[in-house]
Write a structure and sequence with these properties.
TIM Barrel; 2 domains; alpha/beta; Arc Repressor Mutant, subunit A; globular
């Protein structure tokens, strides 16, 4: 099974915490989709004879785009390969872009999953994040989407400047009143070169310390588990049957193709594994869409092992102990690490696999690094 990702780089403005590749404004949208058509046609050999299990429209802000552009690309893809009967076609959306007419158009175009970038249902948090929509829009759009789409996911951010536990509790309560099928809970990350990073460096803002961030995350874990959500990945919680097919496939290291500027692809065969990345420039992409790949790397055995460990520990399907014992270079030190993490309550062993506990999800990267290099 193959999954596809399309990076639509257009946004109205850059959020203070965002470090994704994007351009503000929509003046090049016609040129972009013309270039995308050429890139897609040039990669027909990668698509021929394949069955697509999921397609994800990311960005940028895909919900800004008139729907006929999206349906046109989906038609082009469908002519080159086969869609699984239960294909997931997901689109990232901002609340301010969605009204009932737009959502009806998206549904008619084949979108089955809407990922709503609400980030919060609290006015003060939205202001701190520099978001363009209101808390009321988050509420109304989510409620309306739940009446239309097979799966609706809502993004929430905790650890916003000025946030405390009572604010986070109220935010979660408002989200759960709507009962979306899926929630992604992210601890605010201050990425280099972002507006937020600049504001903090200048002393204009401060974010909650690591201890408070961890307590907010752990509170969300407890609340969502009690509400019947499955914690299937570090940041992701779903009601039964509503996990993200596309995201889970990438975490399981299944092959995927990325289209558009800055999009990544992963090619997998018995002989080799390769990752590619498209150029992170709309101007360069438009000038040569059939030669968009700017980076290509064949993974070594060590790199494949490292990726496997990091990604397997992020999801709740576990990490095979025999695989870890066979491939790592720690020898007896591996057993000592496993024992130490078990004693701390970070991992559990069951049927020859290692699983992170709810507490352990906070330390997923640290545990993976220990298993890889000691």
């Amino acid at each position: 099974m193959l999954t596809l990702y399309l990076h639509i780089p257009f946004c109205k403005a850059r959020c203070s915490y965002c470090d994704f590749y994007l351009v503000t404004g929509m003046e090049h949208i016609d040129l972009f989709f013309s270039a995308l058509s050429l890139e897609t046609a040039s990669r027909s050999a990668d698509l021929k004879g394949r069955t697509i299990g999921a397609i994800h429209f990311g960005g940028g802000t895909p919900s800004m785009v008139p729907v006929h552009y999206l349906s046109g690309w989906l038609e082009q893809i469908a002519a080159l390969c086969s869609f699984a009967p239960d294909i997931e076609i997901a689109l990232e959306a901002n609340p301010e872009d969605l009204d009932e007419k737009k959502m009806d158009e998206l549904q008619a175009a084949g979108i089955t999953r809407l990922s709503i970038g609400a980030q919060s249902f609290m006015p003060e948090k939205l202001y701190a994040l520099g978001r363009a929509h209101t808390a009321l829009q988050s509420n109304l759009v989510t409620a309306s989407a739940l009446q239309r789409f097979k799966s609706v996911s809502v993004d929430l951010i905790c650890g916003v400047p000025g946030e405390n536990l009572s604010m986070w509790e109220a935010d979660l309560y408002k989200a759960l009143t709507l009962r979306p099928h899926h929630l992604s809970v992210y601890m605010l990350s201050v990425e280099p070169k972002t507006i937020l990073h600049h504001q903090i460096a200048k002393g204009m803002l401060s974010v909650p310390d690591d201890a408070l961030q961890a307590s907010l995350y752990e509170h969300a874990q407890g609340v969502l588990l009690r509400q019947g959500y499955n914690h299937y990945e570090v940041s992701n919680f779903s009601l039964p049957g509503h996990h993200s097919i596309y995201n889970l496939a990438t975490w399981k290291r299944e092959p995927y193709l990325g289209f558009g500027p800055s999009a990544h692809s992963f090619f997998l065969s018995e002989e080799r594994e390769e990752r590619t990345a498209n150029v992170s420039s709309l101007v360069r992409y438009l000038s040569a869409p059939t030669a968009a790949v700017a980076f290509r790397e064949e993974l070594s055995a060590e790199e494949r092992f490292t990726e496997h460990v990091f990604l397997a520990l992020r999801i709740n399907s576990g990490l095979d102990v025999d695989f870890l014992r066979k491939e790592n270079k720690l020898g007896q030190g591996l057993l000592q690490s496993i024992t130490r993490f078990e004693e701390r309550g970070w991992i559990e062993q069951q049927d020859g696999r290692l699983y992170l506990t709810e507490k352990g999800f906070l330390f997923a990267d640290l545990i993976a690094e220990e298993f890889i290099s000691g």
